[in-house]
Amino acid sequence: MIYLYYLLAAMGGGLIGGAIGGIIVGGKDLGYDLAAMMGAFYGLLPAISGIAIALLALNFL
Asked: pLDDT tens digit string along 37-59?
């Protein structure tokens, strides 16, 4: 059950970090709202896959 909290924390961090990164990188070109939405979506993908791989590795240790 504790692993679910790690997954939720990683998702929250991925959303916030991706949105901030999207605003910084593409805010002027795409508009800040669109850049934040795209950054949040694409920031979430590596966060979920990274935490899933880490939790699988911890399962086998």
From this structure: 999 999 888 888 888 898 889 88
The ranges assigned to domains in the chain are 2-60
Q: What is the DSSP letter of 4?
A: H
The reported pLDDT for the residue numbered 3 is: 78
Task: Return the residue matching tokens 């911890």.
Answer: 58
Quickly list DSSP for 22-40. Answer: HHHHHHHHH-HHHHHHHHH
Per residue in 17-50, is it b (16+ CB within 10 Å) or e — as a string? bbbebbbeebeeebeeeebbebbbeebbeebeee
pTM of the model as a whole = 0.77
Is 10 exposed, middle or buried (CB count within 10 Å of its CB: 0-12, 13-18, 19+)?
buried
